[in-house]
Amino acid sequence: APRDDVYRIRAALHKRLALTEAYLTWSEVPQRFEARLMELHHATGVPLEERIAALEALQDEIDGARLKTDEWDVLYRLRLQVERDAYEADRRARTRAKAG
C-alpha cells in the first residue's frame, strides 16, 4: 500500500478483526484471555451489569498475568471494545422497549 495509507489500513483491519475468530495476540495465555473476551462479547441474554462485572473481573486477571506490554495493550483495547458494544446493545434494547 502507499505509505500514507498504511496506518489507515492497519486501523481498519484491527477494527474489523478485533471481534472475530482471528487472534490478535500470539501467545497461549493472552489467546485464552481473548477467547474469554469473545465469549463475553457473544453472550446473549446477559444483563449489562453482569457483563460489565465479568469484564472487570477478567480485567483483574489480565492485569495480574505475566504478559508482554504489547499483548496487554491488545487485550485492553479488546476489552474496551467489548464493553462499548455491551453498553450500545443495552441502549438499543432500552430504546426498542420504549418504542414498543
Report a brief summary of the structure.
By secondary structure, the protein is mostly helical.
For the residues shown, what is the average pLDDT?
A: 89
Distance between the termini: 48 Å
Rounded Rg: 16 Å
Give the structural class.
mainly alpha
Question: What is the β-strand count?
Answer: 0
User: Number of helical segments?
Assistant: 4
Low-confidence stretches: none
Largest sheet: none
Tell me the fraction of residues in β-strands, as a range: under 5%
Shape: flat
Describe the protein's topology.
Elements lengths: L5 H12 L10 H15 L5 H17 L4 H31 L1
Helix pairs in contact: 2-3, 2-4, 3-4
Can you walk through the features of this model?
It is flat, with a radius of gyration of 16 Å. 14% of the residues are buried. It contains 4 helices and no strands. 75% of the residues lie in helices and 0% in strands. Helix 2 packs antiparallel against helix 3. It starts with 5 loop residues before the first helix and ends with a helix. By secondary structure, the chain is mainly α.
Give the key terms.
single chain, 100 residues, mainly alpha, 4 helices, flat
